[in-house]
UniProtKB/TrEMBL annotation:
GO MF terms, alphabetically ordered: carbohydrate binding; metal ion binding; polypeptide N-acetylgalactosaminyltransferase activity
Cofactor(s) required for function per UniProt: Mn(2+)
Classification via SMART domains: RICIN
Name used for this protein in its record: Polypeptide N-acetylgalactosaminyltransferase
Membrane topology summary: Single-pass type II membrane protein
Residues annotated as domain Ricin B lectin: 456-579
PROSITE patterns assigned: RICIN_B_LECTIN
Subcellular location: Golgi apparatus membrane
GO biological process: protein O-linked glycosylation
UniProt keyword annotations, A-Z: Disulfide bond, Glycoprotein, Glycosyltransferase, Golgi apparatus, Lectin, Manganese, Membrane, Metal-binding, Signal-anchor, Transferase, Transmembrane, Transmembrane helix
Pfam families: Glycos_transf_2, Ricin_B_lectin
Family annotation (SUPFAM superfamilies): Nucleotide-diphospho-sugar transferases (SSF53448), Ricin B-like lectins (SSF50370)
Amino acid sequence: MSALAPDGPGEMGRAVVVPSERKKEAKDAFKINQFNLVASDMVSVNRSLKDVRMAACRSKTYDPLEVLGRTSVIVVFHNEAWSTLLRTVHSIINRSPRQLLEEIILVDDASERDFLGKKLEDYVAKLPVPVFVLRARKRTGLIRARLRGADKAKGKILTFLDSHCECTPGWLEPLLYEIHKDRSAVVCPIIDVINDDTFEYITGSDMTWGGFNWKLNFRWYPVPQRELERRKGDRSLPLRSPTMAGGLFSINREYFYEIGSYDPGMDIWGAENLEMSFRVWMCGGTLLIVTCSHVGHVFRKATPYTFPGGTGRIINRNNARLAEVWMCGGQVLIATCSRVGHVFRKVSPYTWPGGVARILNHNTRRTAEVWMDEYRDFFYKFNPGQALWGKKDGDIGVVGEVEVFEERKGWRMRGIKQTEVGDVSERKALRERLKCKSFHWYLENIYPESQMPVDYVSVGEVRNKQSNQCVDTMGRKTGEKIGMVPCHGMGGNQVFSYTKKKSFQTDDLCLDVSSVRGPVKLFQCHGLGGNQKWQYDKQTLTIQHVNSKQCLGTPSPTARDTPSLGACDGSLSQQWLLGNIDWK
Ligand code: LR7
Ligand code: MN
């Protein structure tokens, strides 16, 4: 069925060249989906793709296929484009052995586009595989939409995909095989990148796995050496990943329910992937990236979100964070985020009823409250909640996002308010019932490389006793100096953890000194002490750099906002209070 026109646009995953007379049209249409719709529409819904698997994968066989069981593939969508949605459907049909495919279930999450109505139903009715379209009349968000799809599924296995994916040759067999061997395995393909502008198919790496940062954003990180050794260097064996991206995975249907399916209290988008990752590991399952399976995904890039209540670029703290969520973690990610052709976008093309910050904080808090035990403090310290905006002091009417132009009109952020979490008692009861292990166990055994320190002394601000100012990263990066400004109590750049390894850590960066005279810089934490080892003395309140024996103090008169490093003299300027310290 594929490759009817082997030289057609995008065939074999090649980049599409939009003819110059359609460039303007393409530019205008970009914002509809936050990807190049003209390019996508030029590509056949049956386009061919290269076999991107490593050699060792291509020679694996899974006979007899029947024992693996059949899968229902569930694709939820809200206002997806026709061509991306249908390419997802056709790529499933074209590249799945018929004996393994029970049905495809499309769950329409209250889309507002006519072509996704009857036209879609008529189209899928003619396909050689049963395809069902379920409709949510009111926007339920992707989490509840998936629960709806799962509820209707008949297959032994459930496979979830985003609505802008492309499955490559051999994608399904190795996923189902891992579940056949272990019914409590939750398995993800490598997610390849489908470029949002050219629709070129770019193979992802098998050397990245899923993690998360202090903001509880999902991020890709390099696979550590120990995981390669565990597999004796055989990269065609599945990886034990600490977390999953969330959109593309297979799971035994009965096990999906045994382990608590999804948290139906989560709205629209976000955090369900970490929730499921923690839950699976802590409650006895395994989470694998099956490196022999590749599926592509489309990513979004720009920044113009639309929000109920206005359009425009959002400037509050939470939205700066949101942009990172969409990017799945910056450069590291772009190279590796995807491997099942999924279109990766950096901007959301749809609305977030209730506001982005509220929805993300709500979902993330539910994950943190139920699964993270004391480590939820890292999230709360970093992100004390939604911004409160007002025009004058004492006027804090607006919670959440305020547009740039309004800020210029005199809006200022005047405080912060924690988002409500809702009722989590049922999820806590589930954790009890399943007798799940602690988050400490998870960090120690599954994710010791985490940037959440397994053992820590404090997490919070580092406040100087003399000036009442706080150490602040100023949003700077590795290799740059730290700063010091008035404490603002809003988390973010002023949150540090003093760890049992005696480092001062903020997310993945540590305070580091490489010259006796300083300055104190930020460097990637290496966990080996050395330049990153500090002694905090709870009697004298001093922070002494161990190698250089120098003490941290307020900036010298000429240094503006850079904390000093000098001989320890017991002065008030060298005394520091650490946020919520709890000497255990
Ligand atoms: O209200 C909504 N209703 C929906 O049905 C909002 C979204 N959706 C659908 C949407 O049409 C799409 O099919 O949900 C799916 C995911 O939304 P995207 O594609 O707009 O976002 P995303 O690709 O960034 O989503 C990633 O993170 C989500 C967190 O909730 C989900 O886990 C997505 O499945 C996940 N996607 C992937 O893992 C693909 C790889 C991206 C990375 C890293
Ligand atoms: Mn997606």
